[in-house]
Amino acid sequence: MTNPSNPCGSNFSRQHVTDVVKLCERLHVPLLADEIYAGIVFQYESNPNKEFTSVADVESTCPRIVLGGTAKLHTVPGWRIAWLLLIDPANGASGCYKGLEAQATLVLGPNTLVQAALPGALQHTTQVHYDRTVAALEAGAMQFYNAIAQRAVRTTDGAPLLVPTLPQGAMYVMVQIMLERLDPAAITTDVDFYTKLNAEENVLVIPGSLFHADGFFRAVTTRPPEILAEAIDRIVAFCQRHERK
After folding, report:
1. How far apart are CA 218 and CA 206, in angstroms?
2. What residue spans define the domains of the chain?
3. 8 A C-beta contact, residue 41 and residue 5
4. Residue range 203-213, pLDDT digits in tens
5. Within a 10 A sphere around the Cβ of 101, how many other Cβ atoms?
6. b/e map of 30-39 (b: 16 or more CB within 10 Å)?
């Protein structure tokens, strides 16, 4: 599981995370949890899931491997350093730990300067910095969501051409493309939408079919407000230009 989610921008409730862990425990299935976006949870008033819950927070005998790293909340993706946590109360995954250790020793090679700097970065970075980072990411995501939801990304009779999904965390917004309302001679799939939007407006999104979400696209919302505003203008113009007549 990936939580908070790329590509969805979702954040699971504590109850949902607990249910997933307990299901794995009942089925005797180990759980691999990508939590690289841990801590990037939006705090707007109507968000029902304002807190991040790790699978490690659930009391269970289920073996869990949790991925964390510096690339997202710590905003240093170039460091290329991450970690795996093994939660194994019943000691049923000792062989897995040995395999991970061997893999890391033989294959992975984060540079020594970054390894030396990491403990200080984790121990001494202030909460103010993290809060400021999350606030900036939330502002970008909500700017994009609100603009697509409220602006004239609609047909002449008012039907939406794009339907954004309200983000709860991470740094993405998933948007449904109402393909039946676009010109079928030009756009019939999310890949067509992505290709033509890039070619005509120089705006790059990711087609949802890459994530098994046909008819959607994923937008990364980490750009400065003025860049996001221009991208939104271009997306609006593109959709209106290709509206089914």
Report:
1. 5
2. 14-124, 129-242
3. no
4. 999 999 999 99
5. 11
6. ebebbbbbbb
Amino acid at 232: I
Neighbours of 181 (CB within 10 A): 18
Contacts of 207 (CB under 8 A, 6+ apart): 189, 190, 191, 193, 194, 216, 217
Structure tokens at 191: 């890949």
Among the four given CATH numbers 3.30.430.20, 3.30.70.2190, 3.90.1150.10, 3.40.228.10, the one describing domain 129-242: 3.90.1150.10
Q: Is 39 left (phi over 0), alpha (psi -120 to 50) or beta?
A: left
Tokens, residue 144? 């994009």
Share of the chain above pLDDT 70, in %: 98
Alpha-carbon 149 to chain mean position: 19
172: tokens are 């993405």
- Using CA atoms, how far apart are residues 89 and 86, in angstroms rounded to an integer? 9
pLDDT given for residue 154 in this prediction: 65
- The two tokens of residue 202 are 């120089």
Alpha carbon distance, N-terminus to C-terminus of the chain: 42
Computed on alpha carbons and rounded to an integer, the radius of gyration of the chain in Å comes to 21
Global pTM reads 0.91
Concatenated DSSP letters for 70-133? SSSTT--GGG--EEEEEE-TT---HHHHHHHHHHHHHT----HHHHHHHHHHHHH--HHHHHHH
For domain 14-124, which architecture applies? 3-Layer(aba) Sandwich (3.40)
